[in-house]
Specification:
The protein is of the alpha+beta class. The protein has two domains: 125 residues, Alpha-Beta Plaits (2-Layer Sandwich), CATH 3.30.70; 109 residues, no CATH class. Helix content is 23%, strand content 21%. Strands 1, 4, 5, 6, 7, 8 and 9 form a seven-stranded antiparallel beta sheet that branches. A three-stranded mixed beta sheet has the order 11-10-12, with helices on one face. A hairpin with a 5-residue loop joins β8 and β9. It starts with 11 loop residues before the first strand and ends in a 27-residue tail after the last strand.
């Protein structure tokens, strides 16, 4: 299937493959013949925790991926995770109904696999937003690609690598690659102004000093440490905003502060309205 030239709803471009019967017609995604052979075409369910893993080439169209049961969630005992072929990265989970079928089949000794058929890529930064999967049982369905090395040829679009400023109060202030493809970076390795580098070094030293003092304080001194920690958190956020300005043309810059479960990517996400259903879920 040729790449789409027109953005879909949500300003994404779709790239991928279509299914075809051997020496026969192409199959639509909702063709009932798929269900007749115990197969289905489904969107992958992706959460914020998995969106970085989804960018890996292991989840590109044409790749086989593994379906791994996730039986330890009491609210969803039939959950099935979608992992790369080495089971190192999880990109998301199957929809509930399809996951129930996969789990029931596994209990009867029938294994399922999945093939990435297509992807949606953001038109603004070329990030992979979603993927569509063919879920099938190899004992019932054989998927053949006469050109096994075939890969989607996509137009080159501007993209920015992602960086996260980590200032979590542990005594370290560092830059991190959220895709886990590289380790921490020094501020000197980035195209930052000398003034901002010095301010980041000062913030790191202040956090380290506070961490070393925190074990020895008692009573009112601990309250004062809490005040100082709040002041350093505010300073870290201010430096992050400056870094976004200086690095914004080259990097997408995130922030991970004390008590945060995942990075934020814009200042508006730091707002905490004490709403339990907040999509950011940032406990300060």
């Amino acid at each position: 299937m040729l790449p789409s030239r027109t953005p879909t709803v949500g300003s994404c471009f779709e790239y991928g493959f279509t299914l075809r019967l051997p020496a026969g017609p192409a199959l639509e995604r909702d063709d009932p013949l798929l269900a007749a052979f115990g197969a289905a075409v489904e969107w992958l369910q992706v959460t914020d925790d998995h969106e970085e893993a989804l960018q890996d080439e292991a989840f590109a169209p044409g790749r086989l991926v593994r379906l791994v049961a996730e039986p330890f969630d009491p609210t969803d005992p039939d959950a099935v995770g979608v992992w790369d072929d080495d089971e190192l990265r999880q990109a998301g989970t199957l929809p509930e109904e399809t996951a129930a079928v996969v789990c029931a089949a596994a209990q009867a000794g029938l294994e399922h696999r999945a093939l990435v058929l297509w992807e949606l890529r953001s038109s603004c930064d070329d990030r992979r937003e979603r993927i569509g999967l063919l879920v099938f049982a190899p004992a019932l369905v054989r998927v053949e690609n006469p050109r096994s090395s075939l890969r989607i040829q996509r137009p080159a679009r501007p993209s920015r690598p992602r960086l996260v400023l980590v200032a979590d109060g542990s005594g370290e202030v560092r830059w991190w690659d959220p895709s886990a493809s590289s380790g921490p970076l020094r501020a000197g390795d980035l195209p930052l102004s000398q003034e901002l580098r010095q301010d980041l070094d000062g913030l790191r030293d202040a956090f380290a000093q506070l961490a070393s003092d925190d074990n020895d304080v008692r009573g009112f001194e601990r309250v004062e440490c809490d005040w100082e920690r709040d002041a350093l958190r505010a300073k870290a956020e201010a430096l992050w905003r400056r870094a976004r300005t200086e690095l914004g043309r080259r990097y997408a810059v995130g922030f991970l502060g004390s008590g945060m479960r995942r990075p934020v990517w814009s200042p508006s996400e730091l707002t905490n309205d004490d709403d339990d259903e907040s999509p950011y879920d940032i406990p300060f």
